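Repro:
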Amino acid sequence: MMPWVSVVLPFRNAHKWLPSSLASLLLQRNIRLELVAIDDGSTDGSGQLLEQIWAKSPWPLQLITTAGVGVSQARNLGWQQAKNELVAFLDADDLCLEQRLANQAAMLNQNQALQHVLCGWRRINEAGLCIGVVEPWREGAGFTIEQALRHKAVLPSAWMLRREILERSGGFDPGLTQAEDVDLLCRLAFEQEPGAWLQQLACGYRIHPQGASQAARPQARSLLFVTNRFLAKLPEGASTASLAAEVRYATSAWAGWHAWSCDERSLAEELWNSSFGLSPMPPALTWVHLAENVARSSQRVGQLFQIETLLGDPIWLRLEQRWLTGNPAAVQRTLASWRQKLLEELGPMPSASPWWPAKLLTALKFSEPLGELRIEVLNWSIELLSWDPKQLPPLQLRSRLAGILWHWAVICWGETKRTTLNRLEQSAVFYPSGQVLAALERVHRAANSAGAAALAQLGKQLPALADVPLLSASPAFWEQPGQPADSCNGPQCPPCIEKELQAWGRLVLAPGLLQWLPPRVLADPPSKQAIPLTIWEFPSGSCWIRPPLANPWGITHGLAVADQNGVIQAQLSRRYPQPWRSCAALPSGYELPPPIKARWFDATVLAVADLSAEIYYHWLLENLPRIGLALESLSNDKDINSLLLWHNGGESKFVAEGLQVMLGLKPHRLIDARQYPYVSARRLLVPAFPSSFGNPSAAAQNWLRRFWLNSDLTETVDNSNLSGNSNKRLWLSRGDQRRRAVWGELEALEKLQEFNISAVDLGGISVREQAQLLASAELVVAPHGAAMANLVFASKGTKVLEMHQPGYSPPYFHGIAKEQGLNFHSCEQPQRPPALFQDLLWEGPSSEPIHLDQALVHKSVELIIKMNL
């Protein structure tokens, strides 16, 4: 049976539009409707025309006459007189397109919890021709409080609601002549009334000079009033404050565009100027957004837009001068805040803190490629601390900081767009320069062409930074066409880590000390673990890695495999940021070939590369077993004794031990992918990844134990470098590490003497010796990264304590602990570097020093030993 809907149609002097509007209603199918029309003081015979047209309709009509009460009150009178449960609205100059009413009614009738439905709309001109389409759901618009405030996507002529929520909410606010629909949408969102989109262009929204939307000044005033009214209702808190700042800025920016498009020039300039003070974004990003808002808003409504028109407009040129003038007081406040926070974090006697910058200059190791930059950061920090915050910051203090941030951006350019953008934005805050804005123009060029053009015009008016490195002219991978924006934060993402570990139990033994209880799941049967590794074969195939020697870390951040036609094989390709298994983010784009010619090998090449394979953990647990399992799967292959191995593990003694000593691969059969990052081969063989990144599979772990713990090995463990009376309790030392140094290790070991714990630097012995040593251990204590990959060799029941710094605790060892039956604990050390150094001195928490709390380490070890006596 066809549903009934009451259509509320308010009008005043709509003689010109009523014939087409009513015709669109009469063409509705699979629906029965009642028309409730409100003639709000017409003087052009609109009411009589409506009655004449509707007389030919089989559906009932209520015609209500009022004396100019306004559109909000007219709509309220209409729905109050409506006889049906479902109420749809249609303004007299708009159109109800095919099946709108039937489809919206069907959604509401099929889901009784749903309270209102909006559809998309076509913007049409006076002649009824389409000049643009609006599909708000594609931009994230919706019906929650946040979505309603951010997007304000609503149109009465696209709306159908249940009468009962109109009664509960009171309908439209009669005190509003504009933005009354936004007001009602927000009230419904705050009242948590469920809404949904009919994802269909089912309404025609007419744009004409007499339309309410063309009254820019009253519309802006009402929209800002409504927005602020609802923002005032948000609960207090950091997240809501952030939302409020974003919404105030975006509303003002949009209203500025609307005024500009309606040729209300003084209003546009007023609103855009206001946007600068309201923006929660850095100045350069605000500038991009303002230009993009004009371009996209114009395109969305079907208006012709040329960026040259905007950039040459006197209003825009005056805004440029305001941008170029900057906000010295804001810069002064920011630097003063940094200085004050640094002093607070250094403590009551700053110069006695281990984080005092002058002390760090002697405590840290600076021989790595980033050493010069780190020294500059610390020297600048000393200058910051000596600055009097009551005075404007000297030019040198600002330009020096901008240079540091620029240097970081140059380093990160080829590796990560997110970090690069952040560093450039920061640099533009403190000392905007031509280089920075030119770089930002490149960052935004592909996705934000209008904003990029606006930045380019600004940058031509700025001075250059002196004595700074040049930005690479070669495009970064993320500059290539078709590369999606990263939606994943990678292996350091706290929400994903938490989700990854949600099945594990946690027992708090002491503040910061956790015992991890593995999930109770059945292990893979031996038959499943022994399934041969799939080997993909590509005649004349090619493979590549992002050249690791081109970045300061010497680490591979992306790799890919392609067939003879150049088609990238997704199942064999990876790049950072690499998500955890539980991450809901879409896969990252593919790593494109480096801008060099591929090295051809007229041979069979086994290609095995992975992310960060130059690091011992990833080499031992992911790359090496992948090679070994592949060779086992290829044991009967015709080229098994002559194939070449292309790998990116480097040339360390551990890599040589595994490949040359254990697997018997002669050096002439090994191709160093760091030296040859792009190769093609007559016959390319690529093994599948045994597991997701950072989660060594059971098959890989079992292969490693088989490979290194072979009972036929004659080598014995050399204990001469160990101290203490027992080698069953081990402290794995990171040694003299420049990356993620461990502070307080000797002091912590001294306090642990009573427990007969022996310190060993596993970097000084062979992998076979490491394997045997861990296999015989009953307790392993180690700071994160201290060759803990060797836990794969530990025996069932071995007690493990991992110590990590705050802000960095990726679950790299939980899977090993679960598979090998280890008694696994983690202890978060309480000290992290001051916030300023977190931001400027290190790339992220993974590189920060682990500052051991000796009392906490002692208590943790004592508890773990006593619990298992």
